[in-house]
Amino acid sequence: MIKRIGFNPTGKNYYDFVPPERKQRAIETVQALIDVPCGLRAFVEQTYSSGLGRTVEIVLLPLVAEAPEIDGYILSASGILSDQQMTFHDDAVLLGKRIIDQEFIDLGFGVEDIIPDLQ
Fold first, then answer.
1. Whole-structure pTM over 0.85, yes or no?
2. Which CATH number fits domain 2-105: 3.20.20, 1.10.10, 3.30.450, 3.30.2010?
3. Which of 28, 44, 67, 71 is the most exposed place for a label (fewest CB within 10 A)?
C-alpha cells in the first residue's frame, strides 16, 4: 500500500484524504457500512504524480468494535485491475481518485434502506 499511494496511511484519518465536496457522502457511506451492516464494492480510477493512472477494485467490509466509544471498523481490500504500465517501483505519489462505480453488498441485513443517492 505504501508503494502504491506514496505514503504510510497507518494511523491517519481516511476523511482527511477526501475532497471537501465529497466528505459528507464519504461519511454517510462509511456509517451505512457499520450501521446496516453491509459491504461495499467500488471501482476507482487513481491518478498519480507521474501522469499515469490505474484502476483498482476495492471491497469494504464492516468489523465489530468492542470498545463502546468506537462505532466499528472497516476492513479494506483492494487489487489492481489495470494500469498504464506503472510498477510498484515508480516514485509516483497518489494525487487523486475518481469513483467509477460502486455497489453495496447485502450481508444478510438488506441494503434497500441505505441512503438512495449512495446506491
1. no
2. 3.30.450
3. 67
